[in-house]
Amino acid sequence: MLKVVIVDDELLVRIGLRSTIQWEQNGFEIIGDFSDGHKALSVINECKVDILITDIKMPKMDGIELTRRVKEINDDIKIIILTCYDEFDYAKQALLLGANDYIIKSIMEPSDLLNSVLKIKKEIENTLKKHEELDFLKSEVESQKSALKKKAILELFKGEFNSVEEIIKNLKRLGVEFAYKHFCLVCLKIDNFEVNYKKIDLVSKRVLRDSILNIINSIMTSNYNGIAIEVIDGTFTCILSVNSSLYSAEEAGIKFSLMVQEAVKSYTQITVSCLISSGINDIKEISTKYENTINHLKYKVFLDCNCIITHSDIETFEMEVNNNIFDREKEIYYYLNEGNKERVKEIIDQEFSKINKGKASLSLLNYICGQLISILNRASMEIGYSLYNNNEFFNIKEVWDLENVEIIHKWMVEQYTLISNIIIGKRLNCDNDIIRDAMKYIGSNYMRSITLGDVAKHVNVSRTYFSQIFKEETSENYIDYLNKIRIQKAKELMKFNRYKSYEVSERVGFQDSSYFSKIFKKIENKTPSEYIRDIKIEL
Fold this sequence. Notes:
About 60% of the residues lie in helices and about 10% in strands. It is an alpha/beta fold. The N and C termini lie far apart (about 85 Å).
């Protein structure tokens, strides 16, 4: 609703103006009526007023002076003058000062006042519409300009330009000029990316991105010369034009990064980590430095949040480490398929223990994670598991969205546990809760001398009934199933541990090594010694 103020020194006139038309039904709200201009002016100073209806002749401050003062405060306020015949010269003065209409009080009808305020209302609405259209056009132009700037900067980063002169001319046309011929790049990445950026809704993501860019550009405008863009989700790259007579590229990058980190944390309650390139003495070198700097940003996994990594720091991270995870791939895959989560976790823990926080090889981390993800994907495809139910599998890129080595380690164990649980679930795929519980019990106690009666007692049914339903559900009798589980565990021990045949038989629940060999050959079509010989050849 449009806000209206009425000013007239006659009480009856003010009452009449309030009651002569239905203000609210026509989109107006009277926020006050006053007997002189002084009182009205104090309200107009404090409140948003759209229309002022005022008499001309009043004590203390007349309508002419009130009109002049109101227009000084806010020229957008519309004014209707109430006048008598002998005051027409005053009305002309008020119109010259900016009043929008006048009405002669002695012959005024309610429709006259209503028509006047409705006409003004339409003018206000048209003006607002034009302002909205103009703002929209300005926003579109600015959006197009920002998009062209980003496109030009990305072309500079990727080296996709015909000549340096062309890219400088193009950037200058878009309002980007570099004051100095020396540069450095600063890459910033949002910490806790998974929580702070990846999982938030699109509107919040846009607000956060714009806030960080505004902070970066504000600091750059006040203290530096350059430009910044979001190159990929949650990662921003700034080109700093550096005055080399004042400080080195690295010094400039550190100072800039510290200021950005402090402001981002203060205004958004999140932190960013920064990586600073070495100095750039020719704009043509930016594309090469950009690629290196983006790649080196991965080193933040070895550090805490809100860190700054310089080009010289990178050298301290690399160290030669011999790794044999490829040799253990078959072992991991075997245990994964056997549903042995504990053993799989133990191997993963051993591999990650080779990476020392603070000083480690990025290539080693990448290699370990690459091999582990390859095994995960192989197992996922075999069991028909699809990540996010959209036919996607695990990707090494997911690792680099995580914060540090500890979180990557934890994530890897969680994924292997997930796949292992699915494999176990498929193996125990049985609608009968009694048989499923029995299978779990056998899987945990196969190495003991457990009888059919022991298992029946565990699941609280009679021995005869359990024997019957077990055969119905699994298509094999209890002792054959138990022997199959024991032989599977025996193969596991023989494949990756140097146990003798009689030691293996004892560990998996066979009291007689000869009986063990007999059952082993029955199930595997080879003796334990033949199996050990074959896997040595295979490995």
